[in-house]
């Protein structure tokens, strides 16, 4: 994986998929379809999403899943490895996975902040393709528990503990399959208007910014009861 070459991001993502809010800052500047608050009592920006587009998410390749495949409720996180809010989100997602074994979580890459984010995403996609979602989920937690910039070499170093030679991961990460998977994941985020990192899809609702574990748990419970993030 040629991390020293400028063309890396271009060949990974294609033109026109960059940009969006850096964010994740609690969805500031967005409205609320449903009146819900985050763990600090602040409004959570949210919006109804087109059901026909949401229905395409399960068909995306390279999504890292944890939780039962037959789960009635799935929470999708769209994230960037270098989003500071995504670090807190990763710890909360792991907590949710442990406390709610009937919940299915899907991790979808949206590396809009930097070329380094795209490099890391390609490494984790390579791990997901080689070893499956369990290994990719573990690597996601490891990377976002660290400090500093997360890039390709750092992701490869962390992935080495999984026992896959770096050369194998580089070859998979540079493959057309991974490039197209990453491009499709980013396109899905753009099509849904999820321009903050992290963002979430729960049912047909998009959440902009990280609400916190308690708030997410409440919204998941409400979705199960009444098919909305609040009843």
From TrEMBL:
The keyword Lipid biosynthesis does not apply. Keywords: Isomerase. Signal peptide: none annotated. Residues 38-187 form the Thioredoxin domain. It holds the Pfam family DSBA. GO terms for molecular function: isomerase activity; oxidoreductase activity. The keyword Lipid metabolism does not apply. This is Protein-disulfide isomerase. The lineage of its organism: Bacteria, Pseudomonadati, Pseudomonadota, Alphaproteobacteria, Hyphomicrobiales.
């Amino acid at each position: 994986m040629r991390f020293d070459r400028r063309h890396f991001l271009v060949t990974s993502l294609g033109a026109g998929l960059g940009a969006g809010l850096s964010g994740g800052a609690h969805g500031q500047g967005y409205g609320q379809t449903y009146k819900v608050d985050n763990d600090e009592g602040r409004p959570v920006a949210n919006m109804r999403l087109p059901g026909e587009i949401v229905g395409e998410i399960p068909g995306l390749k390279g999504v890292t899943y944890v939780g039962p495949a037959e789960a009635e409720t799935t929470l999708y996180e769209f994230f960037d490895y270098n989003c500071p809010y995504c670090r807190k989100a990763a710890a909360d997602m792991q907590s949710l996975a442990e406390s709610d074994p009937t919940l299915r979580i899907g991790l979808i890459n949206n590396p809009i902040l930097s070329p380094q984010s795209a490099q890391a995403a390609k490494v984790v996609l390579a791990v997901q393709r080689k070893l499956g979602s369990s290994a990719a989920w573990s690597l996601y937690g490891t990377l976002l528990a660290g400090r500093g910039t997360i890039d390709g070499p750092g992701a490869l170093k962390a992935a080495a503990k999984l026992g896959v030679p770096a050369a194998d991961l580089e070859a998979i990460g540079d493959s057309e399959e991974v490039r197209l998977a990453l491009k499709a994941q980013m396109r899905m985020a753009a099509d849904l208007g999820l321009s903050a990192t992290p963002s979430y899809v729960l049912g047909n609702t998009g959440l902009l910014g990280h609400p916190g574990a308690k708030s997410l748990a409440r919204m998941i419970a409400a979705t199960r009861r009444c098919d909305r993030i609040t009843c």
